[in-house]
Amino acid sequence: MIIDKYTPVFTPEEEAQIEAAYQELVQAYMNSNHRQKVEVIDRAFTLARVAHAGVRRRSGEPYILHPIAVARIVCSEMGLGSTSIVSALLHDVVEDTDYTLDDIEARFGDKVRVIVDGLTKVSNDNFSTGTSAQAESLRKILLVMSDDARVILIKIADRLHNMRTLGSMLPSKQYKIAGETQYIYAPLAHRLGLHSIKTELEDLSFRYEHPESYRMISQKIAETAADREQLLKRFAAPIEAALISEGINYDLKMRIKSNYSIWRKMQTKGIPFEEVFDLFAVRIVFDVKDGYPEKKRCLDIYGIITALYRANNDRIRDWTSTPKSNGYRALHVTVMGPGGRWIEVQIRSRRMDEIAERGLAAHWRYKNELVEEDKELDRWLDTVRDVVQAPTPNGMDFLDTFKLSLYAEDIWVFTPKGDTLRLPYEATVLDFAYEIHSELGDHCIGAKINHKAVPITTKLKQGDQIEILHSKTAYPKSEWLGYVVTPKARLGISSALRRQMREQVQRGEEVLRAKCAMAQLELSNSIVDRLLDFYQYNKREELYQAIGTGRIDLERDMAKFVKAQVDQRSATDLGAEPIVGRGRKFKALIDPEAPEERPRIDRKKIYELSEQSQKLNYIPATCCHPIPGDEALGIVDDKEQVHVHKLACPVATKVKSTEGHRLISTRWGEHEGHRFEVTLIFRGVDNVGILHSITATLLEHDHINISGINISCKDGIFSGRISVMVHNTEEVEEICTTLRQHEAIINVHRLAEETLKRRGQTAEESGL
Ligand code: MN
């Protein structure tokens, strides 16, 4: 039953705080361009307040402040209207209290019901456990989103507020939520064109995942602020004078890259902060005057700037006529500023700016003018629907496929008939073939790009004309999955492979049946069970497939097997012969004294990583090679072994967002002397005998243990890699310092994980 009267339960100060937060929301709404329907918002607030009465968040503050804050984001930062605000206020009511969807519908109608229902199915997913529970809940969000995109917007607002208040969660939860935000929500916000929210989500995740790096970058930004101000003044003065004399109304601001983007650049390029050249950009936002075309105005301003400064012609980006797939429009140009520094200038109208910052929500506001962008959004929603509804065997695959649809930066290409097709950046010949038809994809053997024959793996470029070459006898192979970036191609290949597998399974079963018949045996369950045990397969299909593809030499083994049958010996005795199925010996023979089950590790406690007589009580991940002193986290596998990854490792990030229940916080403990290999990269000015003199420098420190060194020179610059055996990060620093002191060396750093560049690696590959 719904009670419409709220009785205060918190302290008077807290009640006042709730009231004030709500009044701010109402004010923000009244100041928006929406039709003013305050009454329904009031009713939603009262219901939410009654429903969450007396409940507190982990931080101790009244729970109701959370839905109010989410509604505030939805209103002020996304520009949505009353339906969304009402739904945001009610988003946790059905999930967390006794109220039902029928109660909601009775009060607020079916639209709000649909949205709240969507949010209820997917809420609190960040606290669930199990491999695919999170993937499953994402799938639900997307399914519901295809009915009403507001579900996903409110979900993003909910996540944003949770990230803003993440400080009060347990550290292990923080990693998990931050990882999931990085992996799913930030790309999602990006794809919906919610630029400022995406940036904030990334920055907040970064702050919790790499507190040290975050602090370091913030500090360096602050230290260099005065220099930048100075530079901006010198750079902007002549531009501003010219804009004013042209009678253009404008805002000119400097935009600093987010901490996260700076850090990413440092990681992927392997450079220190000081070498990040595009640390900031200058943005000019102008007002449109009585019907003067925006695009023309962008070009006017471009003309003004390039008359003053030399432009880098390779770095002009014109999204004024054809926007990016997330709706972004602007003109970017990079010019040589004072002191020989390249400076990027972004030119946008007020409207373009709003779309860039608020994305989708702003599209709705300008709906009548922006039909095209709506079409783009619909196109994307179509893709999402395809992905969501396609039958995928497990949640992990689904996540990978879905992420492909998020990372789209598009190119245009042509069919032989001259039709245009839009494909994501990095799309290949194979993607193109599947885009046209799955049949064409399945039989693709290559293409002619601009009349030149190329293989299926060739990446397409803007404006390419492509003719697919095909053959009836060609058929998809599993490697193909690595050659494609579009969800459509991925789904096409997967389903062809599944078809293929079914055929192999069938063939395998037939072969086995025939073999049994020859030995005058009936293909019974007990025979199958013994074979499964013998070859170490878990599923009947896997066994049949192995037979079907000839991976198992049934001819050879069957004779022994039949003999064993006749001798009435058990399959276990049979296994004692040195026959190895799938490279593995019999379970019982692997380790006759199988160690007792490892004790269960307490996930809530911090796990201390240690070493005793060369035995580590953990497994350092081979993808990111953590060493003592690195920011790290642990992932517990099914055997209760702890795999340690660097916090920055993309494999770990993926596990964080999909199998958060495996995570544990770790601390580096006692190590008796185990050495870890790390690789250092250095660059410098070439001079004679460099290899010798660097080695000599290092050898002065007699405890440094070099396991490999390699130097190459080009155009007077050398770059080198050196592998050293160390105990911890302190020693790495010490070696770096030593190397930096060498006069020829310009910079030195430890090799960042090579896998950082590779997105979407699966947990299986990481050895989990
Ligand atoms: Mn919530």
Question: How does this structure look, described?
Answer:
With 768 residues, the chain is α+β, with helices and mostly antiparallel strands. A five-stranded mixed beta sheet has the order 1-2-5-4-3. The chain has a five-stranded mixed beta sheet with strand order 11-17-15-16-14. The chain is globular. The two termini are 49 Å apart. 35% of the residues are buried. Manganese (II) ion binds at residues 66, 91-92, 123, 158.
The largest sheet, given as strand count, sense and whether it forms a barrel, is: 5 strands, mixed
- What general form does the structure show? globular
Radius of gyration: 31 Å
Total count of strands: 21
Percentage of helical residues?
Answer: 40-55%
Question: Which structural category do the helix and sheet elements fall into?
Answer: alpha+beta
Overall pLDDT metric: 79
Bound compounds, each kind once, are: manganese (II) ion
Distance between the termini: 49 Å
- Strands of the widest sheet, in order across it, are 1-2-5-4-3
Which regions have little confidence, pLDDT < 50, spanning 5+ residues? 124-131, 366-374, 568-596, 754-768
Binned strand content: 5-15%
| Count of alpha and pi helical runs | 29
Short summary:
This protein has 768 residues and is α+β, with helices and mostly antiparallel strands. The strands form 6 sheets. A 5-stranded mixed beta sheet has the order 1-2-5-4-3. A 5-stranded mixed beta sheet has the order 11-17-15-16-14. Strands 19-20-18-21 form a 4-stranded antiparallel beta sheet, covered by helices on one side.
